[in-house]
Amino acid sequence: MKNSITITDNRTNNSYEFEIKDATRGPSVVDISSFYAQTGMFTYDNGFTSTASCTSDITFIDGNKGELRYRGIEIEELATEHSFLAVCYLLLNSKLPNEEELLDFDLELRHRSLLHENLRHLFQAFPSGAHPMATLSAATAALATFYYDHLNISDESDYQEMARRIIAKMPTIAAFAYRHSIGAPFIHPDIDRGFAENFLYMLRAYPGGKMHRGIYGEYTIKEIEIKALDTIFTLHADHEQNASTTTVRGVASTGAHPYVAISAGISALWGRAHGGANESVIQQLEMIGSIENVDKFIARAKDPDDDFRLMGFGHRVYKNFDPRAKVLKGLQEQLKDELKLDSNLMQIANKIEEIALNDEYFISRKLYPNIDFYSGVILTALKIPTSMFTPIFVIGRTVGWITQWIEFKKTKGMKITRPRQLYIGK
Ligand code: CMC
Fold first, then answer.
1. Structure confidence by residue, pLDDT tens digits, 106-131
2. Do 50 and 81 share a domain, yes or no?
3. Which of 68, 88, 121 is the last residue of a domain?
4. What is the per-residue pLDDT across 181-219, written as a single tens digit (0 to 9) for each?
5. 235 lines ligand 1 (CB under 6 A)
6. Which numbered atom of ligand 1 lies nearest the CA of 373?
7. Which residues are CB-contacts of 44 (< 8 A; sequence separation ≥ 6)?
8. pLDDT at 381
9. How would you classify the pairing of strands 4-8 and 15-21?
10. Known catalytic residue at 303
11. From atom 41 of ligand 1, which residue's Cα is the shortest distance away?
């Protein structure tokens, strides 16, 4: 006998039965796809706090324990023992690569990192000063015009090629979006540099490939900077059915081109309740200005009549320490030691964290620092321009979006995303 749940309408005493489907980990679901047909009513779930929109075997989160796994492997292990490219390979192929597979994957991504010359001209259409996230979203959608044939793919090797192409090009588009925003000439990717290093190079180099004076007085990109950025990419690589991934799947459900689905994901990510929080964290820390002001802003965050929220705190799913934040906290300590960094912003951030973790308001609501709280501080310490924080989230998340897009396409019987409403108009 199948497990089921029975709902009784107390107006009519009619009962309706719905099947319970079990997960391999985490909560089971009640299959309510026949709810309307059986009861003539819709279900209502503001913000989808109780809704599973798909089946998936990519990423698992246990928000109460503070656990995150990609393809069954814990994030702590992936972030400390594997490179971001190995993690990309894992997400796309459901297994970690061996040495040769990783080398091939890396080489292919390096080769695919160039943009078509015509796409380069697109950037000129945007005003200088444009936020890189807006340019990034537009240029990603424009990629669909160059790879229109990706619209009708259905076999595994085409899926994989389409995915590798977008993952490889995203750092280049992001770097071009930044260079355009400050009126600087574009720096093309350097085939001799790895993924994270190449991105830093395209952000910082002068024409001809010369590096300008680095943040530590040398002309090179430091190994620790590459390692920090690579870890940040890994921590952002996927996160189950969050707002931007749900957007990507929604666009996938209509049959649109995969790259416009990714572009829609980028737009959804930009908001400060989602990926845009990393930029807002720094703006907020700068506004707070000094340790003496922290109490005042904590009081504002707690005031129900004040819209002010502590950016980088709270999460829909994590009701415990965000495991990604834990890894970043460790990285922050490492950077502090190795680079002798102890910025004013870091001190304010540490003070906020200390107060919030011991304050009844935050404890009772299970509000912990999330990934964006630390990534903003670390990226600032690495002298990454603030406007590039959310694009960096995009570079990391692209693999997750495209893996989820492929899973959607491969899952039999997926329908167009089309919710209903509780009509309250005339
Ligand atoms: N500062 C102060 N109070 C907060 C905060 C915060 N950052 N976050 C939630 N609360 C309070 C909120 O006022 C509410 O209190 P009450 O029950 O008294 O009305 C309670 O906590 C529950 O909040 P909610 O808005 O119902 O929770 P949610 O699950 O809908 O929202 C969130 C989650 C991330 C949007 C929210 O915590 C938030 O706005 N945080 C700040 C923005 C942020 O850091 N976003 C990045 C999330 S991590 C990156 C990613 O994966 O996207």
1. 999 999 999 999 999 999 999 989 99
2. no
3. 68
4. 999 999 999 999 999 999 999 999 988 877 765 554 555
5. no
6. 44
7. 422
8. 83
9. antiparallel
10. no
11. 311
Q: Is 315 designated active site?
A: yes
The long-range contacts involving 148-157, CB below 8 angstroms and separated by at least 24 positions, are 148/257, 150/257, 150/258, 150/259, 151/257, 151/258, 154/409
Which of 68, 83, 109 terminates a domain? The answer is 68
At residue 382, the pLDDT reads 86
162 & 260 share domain: yes
Find the CATH number of the domain harbouring 400.
1.10.580.10
Q: Are residues 337 and 401 in the same domain?
A: yes
Q: Which of 111, 315, 322, 342 is catalytic?
A: 315
Please work out whether the CB of residue 309 comes within 6 Å of at least one atom of ligand 1.
yes
Nearest CA to ligand 1 atom 44: 312
Q: Kindly state the helix (H) or strand (E) to which residue 68 belongs, with its residue range.
A: strand 67-70
Distance from the alpha carbon of residue 86 to the mean position of ligand 1, in angstroms: 32
Higher pLDDT, 343 or 166: 166
Q: Which of 370, 375, 390, 393 to mutate to test the pocket of ligand 1 (most atoms within 8 A of CB)?
A: 370
Edge to edge, what strands does the sheet with 67-70 contain?
59-62, 67-70, 73-74
User: In this structure, are 130 and 249 located in the same domain?
Assistant: yes
Q: Which domain holds residue 11?
A: 4-68
pTM, to two decimals? 0.94
Atom 11 (ligand 1) nearest CA = 365
Calpha distance 379→70 (Å, rounded): 24
Nearest to 375 by CA among 232, 264, 237, 241: 232
Which 3 state secondary structure label does DSSP give 212? coil
Mean pLDDT over 405-414 rounds to 95
Domain count, the chain: 2
Find out whether 171 and 199 touch, Cβ atoms under 8 Å. yes
Within this chain, do residues 64 and 195 fall inside the same structural domain, yes or no?
A: no
Tell whether 48 and 184 lie within a shared domain.
no
The answer to whether the CB of 274 is under 6 A from ligand 1 is: yes
Residue 339 clears pLDDT 80, i.e. is over it: no
Q: Is the CB of 242 under 6 A from ligand 1?
A: yes
- In sequence order, the β-bridge partners of residue 54 are none
If asked whether residues 54 and 105 sit together in one domain, one would say no
Give CA–CA dist 241/59, Å, rounded: 9
Q: Are residues 51 and 98 in the same domain?
A: no
CATH, residue 29: 2.20.28.60
